[in-house]
What we know:
Layout: H1 2-25, E1 39-45, H2 52-62, E2 68-71, H3 73-78, H4 80-88, E3 92-95, H5 108-126, E4 132-133, E5 152-153, E6 158-159, H6 168-179, E7 185-189, H7 201-216, E8 222-223, H8 226-230
Parallel strand pairs: 1-2, 1-7, 1-8, 2-3, 4-5, 6-7
Helix pairs in contact: 2-7, 6-7
Amino acid sequence: MRNWTITLLTVGAVYTIIPWIVTHLFGIGVVRRGEERAEIALTFDDGPNPEYTPLLLDMLKRHHVKATFFVLGSKAEQYPELILRMHREGHQIGLHNYRHKSNLLMMPWTIRKQVERSAKQIEAITGEYPTCYRPPWGMFNVCDLFMQKRYTLVLWSLIAQDWRSRVGRTRLKSTLLSGITDGSIVLLHDCGETLGADRDAPSYMLKALDDVLYELKGKPIRCVRIDEMTGAVVKPMITTKA
């Protein structure tokens, strides 16, 4: 019994804890920030959302900013017009699984199916196969690390807890302005429907980000997509025979 317990704990550590240490603490196999000066990447998880994503796209267009959206495949199926708008307006679309469920709670083949289903859905809408992947909550398991052969695995360097309404506009703005530095990859959310998030939280994020983008106009900082920051190549559309 004791040997089985040790074995299970060892397997669990290899599957979950070690990948977290490797990616979050040492940044091995993942992108956590850019290397160019005066360059940052705004990234948005969990969408698209029919209420907040259009407002966010309007804002980004007004500020002439390009961003990266890590979208859920299930929501891409629900709101293909928002995915198409992101693409047409020059934003990058990355993968965030089909549903918002931690990779630590799923088997490798289940995750692979979710990612591939989401990628094909985005490809069918935009004509481009996604090149970037960020799992929900940034939680990789050991098998996920092999996906770097096909995708750029992306985390972040600045997180502002914008999924909580109580953070508010003023505090969120302060966190962003004080935390943004050369090469920052900023994690934000355009949907508040996931576990642990407040449904109206994106409304505060939008106001705070609008303030931040106005202030950044006076600084030599350029907002870029993740593929521009990393030099990743967009993969061509994969066609299938009828």
